[in-house]
Design a protein that fits this description.
about 210 residues, Purple Acid Phosphatase, chain A, domain 2, six-stranded mixed sheet, 4 helices, about 20% helix
């Protein structure tokens, strides 16, 4: 299975148009979107953005998305994995959007307790865990030098051990790391031209790519 992984579009239609061309050229089986599709936008905004991204998609909302954007996922060929599991091309996904509590106001957050409770119910047996927020301590360092990840997501990953964790949210920490046999990928924000290409076979490989606006 070949995937493109993206996050943090933040309603940049210029970036989406270039990303769409990259996706057509790569020809993935699935594009996974780890939230912040809009920038404090509406369902119509989300529909307009997702409809421009070709092919099959799976997504969760981010903290800058309204929770109800999931209502338009199906009509844009997007599998809703927010608080849910889904098997796609033989790969089991589980996901959770929103973010952990923040020091400023956004549209969609969960307490650490709720994050743990929701994910603990859906994460067993998962191949790929898709969240908006990183696990605490992994690819989550902010521009101010502190960690913005979720303790609960880190605990869930350590408990249920998916093969891969995909996330975004912390724009300043794109990258790929492996810890204890689990691959962690923060592709960085699409609005800055970032995405990842992932191959899932017996082993999982991932590369961060960057495009310039055309």
């Amino acid at each position: 299975m070949k995937m493109v992984a993206v996050s943090d579009i933040h309603a940049s239609m210029k970036a989406v148009r270039v990303l769409a061309g990259e996706i057509r050229e790569i020809g993935p089986d699935l594009t996974v979107i780890s939230g912040d599709i809009t920038h404090f936008g509406t369902k119509d905004d989300a529909k307009r953005i997702l409809s421009k991204i070709p092919g099959k998609k799976a997504a969760v909302p981010g903290n800058c998305d309204l929770p109800d954007i999931v209502d338009i996922f199906e009509e844009t060929e997007t599998v809703d994995i927010h608080g849910k599991r889904a098997e796609i091309e033989g790969v089991v996904f589980a996901g959770l959007g929103a973010s952990n509590p923040l020091p400023f106001s956004t549209l969609f957050t969960y307490s650490e307790k709720n994050i743990y409770t929701i994910l603990d119910a859906i994460a067993p047996g998962t191949d790929i865990l898709v969240t908006h927020t990183p696990p605490f301590g992994i690819l989550d360092k902010t521009m101010f030098g502190h960690r913005g990840g979720s303790e609960s997501i880190r605990k869930i990953i350590e408990k249920h051990r998916p093969r891969m964790a995909l996330f975004g949210h912390i724009h300043e920490s794109p990258g790929i790391e492996e810890h204890g046999g689990i691959l962690f990928v923060n592709p960085g924000p699409v609005k800055n031209g970032n995405f990842a290409v992932i191959e899932i076979e017996e082993q999982i490989s991932a590369e961060i790519h960057h495009f310039a606006e055309k």
